[in-house]
Amino acid sequence: MFSLYNKTSRFSFTKGFVIVLFVCLFCSFNVHEEQKYSLTGLAQGTSYNISYYSNNEKIKKETVDSILAVIDSSMSLYKPYSVINKFNNSKEGIEIDENFRTVLKKSLQVYDDTQGVFDITVAPLVQAWGFGVNEIDNYPTPSTIKTIKNCVGSNLLKLNGSYLAKVKPCVKIDMNGIAQGYSVDLVADYLLKLGISQFVVEIGGELRISGVKPDGTLMRIGIEGPGEHDQTPEIRHIIGLENGAITTSGNYRKFKQNGSKKITHLIDPRTGYPIENNLISVTLYANKAITADGYDNAIMAMDIKKALKFVETHNELEAYIIYHNEEGKVVDTMTTGFKKLLIDE
């Protein structure tokens, strides 16, 4: 049995403001002609688990570690030497690497598609609310938020080839809402290049699956969420997947308490304030983890009606959403496509 760990476990990308819920992966493998190989490790401040079927061992832990280290050196806010920190500390901009450029372009696409709900320039707001790299002594005042918002907006970024420029020196970016999904894809694509077509790649609770088990059965994924009335988390559904990615964004595990007020790590870049709505978690299916990872954060900022409508207009997405209804009860819903993945009903 795989256990997919908390997506918000302060990995070196610190996806602190975005993701809280985790999912569990059940893989009771039966070995037929091919043998199952497994790799586990720590990287990016979280854990990873990889299982694949092959006639022989084809990858080493050191190789996976090196792939993830490359991403760290590009997009980790916890690495002083990273490209993202060099950009954030620059006044005008810098040359960026290809990994950075790929994630940036996807981020800008999601920014446009969600009308600014997903915005990697949210970094100053994330820090102001205490979910960034540095600790804070006090929560920001309305005037502080107003000032910071002048530095927020992906329209303040200009990409020209491999050069990323900023319109204002105060613009800073945070790719934690999407970079880990890209890491999953990068490892998965590496396995495919090696000729491995049956695998599960999981990093910090985000996963991508390819193929079925040797006996022809599907990989099984348990989707976890809070129990009724926000009780202890429980497995709410099990889905079977042959190919694709699953990521989850939520707010019931990572938050701060300010008196009686709950301050979620999900920050709305349009208002400058933590999101307050009835959604608890959003689990998305997409072909690539970077796609699911980018959109799950944005959908968490919508109310349930807008969230479902948004997913229904995007053929590449399927969703399972847990939320509070008007009576405050924990309930769930899902798209027709996601329901077809269920194997527990």
Distinctive features:
alpha+beta; T-fold; 8-stranded antiparallel β-sheet; 3-stranded antiparallel β-sheet; 16 strands; 27% helix; flavoprotein; lipoprotein; metal-binding; ApbE-like_sf; transferase
Secondary-structure blueprint:
Layout: E1 24-26, E2 35-43, E3 46-54, H1 61-75, H2 83-89, E4 93-95, H3 98-113, H4 123-128, H5 142-149, E5 157-160, E6 163-166, H6 179-193, E7 199-203, E8 206-210, E9 219-225, E10 234-241, E11 243-250, E12 255-258, E13 261-264, E14 279-286, H7 289-300, H8 304-312, E15 318-324, E16 330-334, H9 336-339
Antiparallel strand pairs: 1-9, 2-3, 3-7, 4-6, 5-6, 7-8, 8-11, 9-10, 11-14, 12-13, 14-15, 15-16
Helix pairs in contact: 1-6, 3-7, 6-7
Notes on the protein architecture:
The chain is α+β, with helices and mostly antiparallel strands and 345 residues long. It has one domain (1-345): T-fold, CATH 3.10.520.10. Helix content is 27%, strand content 27%. The protein has an eight-stranded antiparallel sheet with strand order 2-3-7-8-11-14-15-16. The chain has a three-stranded antiparallel sheet with strand order 1-9-10, with no helix packed on it. Helix 1 packs antiparallel against helix 6, helix 3 (98-113) crosses helix 7 (289-300) and helix 6 packs antiparallel against helix 7 (289-300). The longest helix has 16 residues, at 98-113. The protein is globular. The two termini are 21 Å apart. This is FAD:protein FMN transferase. It catalyses: L-threonyl-[protein] + FAD = FMN-L-threonyl-[protein] + AMP + H(+). Mg(2+) binds at residues 177, 293.
